[in-house]
């Protein structure tokens, strides 16, 4: 690991780039971050990256954005925390707002099938590479290996992610020590801000959990959106690069134009900065404690297990024919053999997908 303090310019450049090319959801984003900050730049060791990954999984909010914030704080203090997180969010915010403008103006979403057809298989290879590298560091003994298998099994069985993380985390630590109203809510920018602050403060899980959360209030209770508008908003968050939580940007634009987009984006992401600022300084202290360190070991293994399950699910959706399987194999070979920058692989996959579709 390099001991030189990272400049704010270096952080800004890296996370602007990742925010522009990081397709595929949190597991894919974290895989690309691992490639950049551990393998290429050596800003963090494998162990430090794993500990931060475990910490992000224990707090609500967008995990990949929280990882960016953690890295920024680790390498450049409080200013780095703000710069890294903001730069990771900014490209997605601008892209999603452009999509929302087109949606409002023309009544449909820009086509993205060809782009994703080529990019998704490459992303699978990037995540698998990250899992391989991090897994060898996280699985320190046979007991942690057993816990990892248990976490995968529980996740496949549909057990809540937070229960898996805490349950698998507590086991090695123990070894060390021995209803709602249906009234319509009038729309206002303040109500929009407070709603997304609530979502960002309490939401664990995937984009599908986000869909259920948004539907309950925005569609069923308050009638701010139609079912179709909400599904389109979720789709945009899934198919554009960067954090999936920029679904809020799309919703805010539909409801109140550019101002609404900014208000909703600030609301859903602000809690992540606060949670990382509070929890980040605690991670090194946890690692120094034998009992808390054992808990963190278990959480790290469980985090990778959840990441592996998501990768399996993404792979089933992305590897659909000989072309996509071939793209994934070639990308994996180039990553493992030549450590080619994942940004070039994503660009190559996008070109192939657009050419074929």
Description:
80% of the residues lie in helices and 0% in strands. It has helices spanning 8-21, 26-40, 46-57, 63-106, 113-138, 142-156, 161-177, 189-202, 207-221, 227-239, 247-279, 282-288, 290-318, 322-338, 342-356. It has 15 helices and no strands. The protein folds into 2 domains: 8-138 and 277-283 and 304-356, no CATH class; 189-270, no CATH class. Helix 2 (26-40) crosses helix 4 (63-106), helix 5 (113-138) packs across helix 14 (322-338) and helix 6 packs antiparallel against helix 7 (161-177). The model has no long low-confidence stretch (mean pLDDT 81). It starts with 7 loop residues before the first helix and ends with a helix.
């Amino acid at each position: 690991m390099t001991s030189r303090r990272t400049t704010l310019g270096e952080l800004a450049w890296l996370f602007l780039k990742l925010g522009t090319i990081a397709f595929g959801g949190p597991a894919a984003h974290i895989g690309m971050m691992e490639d950049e900050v551990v393998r290429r730049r050596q800003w963090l060791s494998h162990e430090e990256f794993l500990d931060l990954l475990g910490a992000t999984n224990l707090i609500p909010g967008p995990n990949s954005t929280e990882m960016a914030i953690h890295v920024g704080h680790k390498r450049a203090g409080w200013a780095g925390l703000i710069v890294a997180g903001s730069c990771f969010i900014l490209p997605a915010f601008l892209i999603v707002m452009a999509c929302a403008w087109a949606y409002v103006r023309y009544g449909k979403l820009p086509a993205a099938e060809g782009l994703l057809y080529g990019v998704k298989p490459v992303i699978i290879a990037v995540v698998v590479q990250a899992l391989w590298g991090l897994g060898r560091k996280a699985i320190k003994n046979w007991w942690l290996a057993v816990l990892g298998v248990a976490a995968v099994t529980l996740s496949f069985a549909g057990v809540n992610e937070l229960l898996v993380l805490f349950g698998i985390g507590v086991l090695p630590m123990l070894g060390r020590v021995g209803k709602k109203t249906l009234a319509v809510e009038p729309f206002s920018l303040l109500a929009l801000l407070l709603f997304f602050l609530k979502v960002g403060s309490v939401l664990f899980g995937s984009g599908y959990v986000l869909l259920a959360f948004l539907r309950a209030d925005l569609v069923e209770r308050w009638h701010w959106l139609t079912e179709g508008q909400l599904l389109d908003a979720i789709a945009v968050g899934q198919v554009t690069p960067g954090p999936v939580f920029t679904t809020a940007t799309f919703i805010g634009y539909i409801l109140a134009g550019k101002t609404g987009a900014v208000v909703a984006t600030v609301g859903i992401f602000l809690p992540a900065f606060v949670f990382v600022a509070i929890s980040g300084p605690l991670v090194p202290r946890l690692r120094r404690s034998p009992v808390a360190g054992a808990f963190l070991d278990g959480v790290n293994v469980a985090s990778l297990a959840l990441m592996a399950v998501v990768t399996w699910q993404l792979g089933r959706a992305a590897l659909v024919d000989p072309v996509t399987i071939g793209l994934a194999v070639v990308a994996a070979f180039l990553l493992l053999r030549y450590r080619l920058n994942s940004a070039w692989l994503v660009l190559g996959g996008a070109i192939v997908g657009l050419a074929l579709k």
